[in-house]
Structure formats: structure tokens, C-alpha cells
Amino acid sequence: MKWTFVIQRKFRAAALLGGIMLVVILGTVLLQRNAQGIDQSSASIYNDRLIPATTILYITENLYSKRLTLENHLFTSEGTSELPVAEQLKSYDKSIDSLIRVFEKTYLVAEEEKSLTAFKEQNSRYVHLEQEILNQCAAGNVEGGKRVFAQNGALKFKEAVASLNALTNIQSDVGKDLMKESKSNMASFGVITSLQIGLAVIIGLMILVLIYDSKIIEKPALKDKSQYFNLN
Q1: Which of 95, 89, 94 is nearest to 70 (CA)?
Q2: How many other C-beta atoms lie within 10 A of the C-beta of residue 205?
Q3: Between the chain's N and C termini, which has fewer beta carbons within 10 Å?
Q4: Per-residue pLDDT tens for 60-94?
Q5: 132 burial type by CB count under 10 A (0-12 exposed, 13-18 middle, 19+ buried)
Q6: What local confidence, expressed as pLDDT, does residue 42 receive?
Q7: What pTM did the predictor assign?
Q8: What DSSP assignment string belongs to 10-42?
Q9: Cα distance between residue 153 and residue 163, in whole Å
Q10: How far apart are CA 190 and CA 52, in angstroms?
Q11: How many helices, marked H, and strands, marked E, lie in the chain?
């Protein structure tokens, strides 16, 4: 009867131990996934948020430099040298196009794609407007170029800057979401780790109990030790 009882206890202990080991394995898998999620979130914050935010800053800088260059040309040189300013504007345009290509290589959410498309269209219209201003200056209509620059040009410029600002706001919002995701992964990481430590303690106690039961079976207590010395 004692053997049957001990075997039953061992079977139950083995089943419980197997269940605990399964939980530990699942916990390890979850930890690996959380670690990968944290790594991906960190990489995305740098590659898909920080780099685009910096790129937007450079695009904005080039856009303002174009505006200032054309303004200086209109209000200081009186349109007497169109070729140098045209070359300067083309140089800024090439820089902006290069930066846009860098931005497009990053991961873009739907709102980013929409705002980027809007900026590209607005920037294209502004480039054509700049050319119109230069053409008027070349034809001797400097005052007409100034009016276009101050009225329609100012409007198109503000629209382009507004699209860039929208892109900047999206970077901030998506970056906050990534930070929340990383914090959530870290919290679950701590919970799973604590659970695994607790299960390790339980497994250790179960092993001690099994060892104790094994010793009892291997060395049973005898009521009458003299029976081993009875030769009859």
C-alpha cells in the first residue's frame, strides 16, 4: 500500500512538474518575443522617427533658404542677374529632392504618406511659381515678380511649411506610441521573470520532496530487526 501511495504521489508530482516546465518554456518564448519587440521599437524610434524628423528639419531649412535667396534677389539686386539666383534655387531643389528620397525609404504610416504627398505637390507648385517670378524679372517686370512673391508665393510657401509641420507632429505621435509599446513590453518582461523565479523555487521544493520520499522507500523502517538474525 505504501508503494502504491508513493508512486501516486510521484506521478502527481511528475505531472505537476511537467506543467510547470511547460509554463517556464512558454514564459521563455514570451520573454524572447518581448525582447525582440523592445529591440524593434528602439530601432524604429531611431530609423523611422529620429532620422525622418532630422530630414524634415533639413528640408525646412532648404525651403527657407530658397525663400530668402529669392527675396534678396527681388528686393536688392532688382532682377539684374537671374542666372546666379536660378542656379542657387536649383541647388536647393536638388537638396530637397534628395532629402525626400531619404524620407521615403523609412517606414511611413498612412498619415505620413498623405502629408508627404501633399508637400511634394505644394513644393512642385512653389518651384513653378519661383520660375514664373524669375521670368517676370527677366522680362523687366520686377514689380510684378515682387507682387507674385508677396501674395501667391507667400501662400504657397505657407502651405508647404504646414505640410512639413504636419509630418513633424506625426513623428512625435508615432514616437510616443512606440515608447508606450516599449514600456508595456518591459512591464510584461518583469512579470514573466518574477513568475519564472517563483516556478524555479517550486520546482526546487518538489525535487527535495521527491528525494525525501525516495530515501524513505529505499530504507524502510523495520519493527523487528532481530528477524534478519533468525537462522530458522
Answers
A1: 89
A2: 10
A3: C
A4: 999 999 999 999 888 875 544 555 888 999 999 99
A5: middle
A6: 58
A7: 0.62
A8: HHHHHHHHHHHHHHHHHHHHHHHHHHHHHHHHH
A9: 16
A10: 32
A11: 6, 0
